[in-house]
Amino acid sequence: MTIRVLLADDQALLRSAFRVLVDSEPDMEVVGEASDGAEAVRLARAHRPDVVLMDIRMPGTDGLAATREISADPALDGVRVVILTTFEVDDYVVQSLRAGASGFLGKGSEPEEMLNAVRIAAGGEALLSPQATKGLIARFLAQDGPPGPDLDPERAERLDSLTVREREVLVQVAGGHSNDEIAERLEVSPLTVKTHVNRAMAKLGARDRAQLVVIAYESGLVRPRTDQA
């Protein structure tokens, strides 16, 4: 199957470079280009791409607002957004994941990293660079005291539907560990871990693994602590 990609960036030169890169792959094609968030949403609805490579800082409707709108549209449920940004470790990481982004990728990434990100997102997995993942977790861990007003009572109640093993896996996911790492820690197979992750996503209403990280903290399953690194 050909992965359909939508490019959203206010810099025409970058869009052209991304188009050449994506179109050079036999399993990918660019189906549209947007120069701002509003156009990205319009083109997403028109072309139903598999993946949107979304610049987060654009004039008018920015990438954050566009990501939120795409994620909230039931008709675009299969569309995955990967945020492209110059600054991976900032408030945009948390905000975009809450808005429904499937991951982050730095604009300075190698071409193969970007192509791999598209394939991972198209496959329904989350894509967070190690730097972005560490930054995201560090921000949660740096918060003092119990979860604040962002705590989602509904999601906290949904935790009751998780099995003991699913909770254990979710805690590990929130720690930024891969399926292989979790499998080693819990002494199970990677396939078993993937099954538990998928079931947890379904029960908690998470679009992907990246959303699970946010939910684990916002629901109170994992408590922010300042004594962790």
Automatic annotation (TrEMBL):
PROSITE patterns per record: HTH_LUXR_1, HTH_LUXR_2, RESPONSE_REGULATORY
Entry keyword Lipoprotein: no
One Gene Ontology molecular-function label: DNA binding
Superkingdom to which the source organism belongs: Bacteria
4-aspartylphosphate, modified sites: D55
A Pfam match: Response_reg
InterPro entries: CheY-like_superfamily, NreC/VraR/RcsB-like_REC, Sig_transdc_resp-reg_C-effctor, Sig_transdc_resp-reg_receiver, Tscrpt_reg_LuxR_C, WalR-like
Matches recorded under Gene3D superfamilies: 3.40.50.2300
Protein name in the entry: DNA-binding NarL/FixJ family response regulator
The organism of origin for this protein: Streptomyces thermodiastaticus
Taxonomic placement: Bacteria, Bacillati, Actinomycetota, Actinomycetes, Kitasatosporales
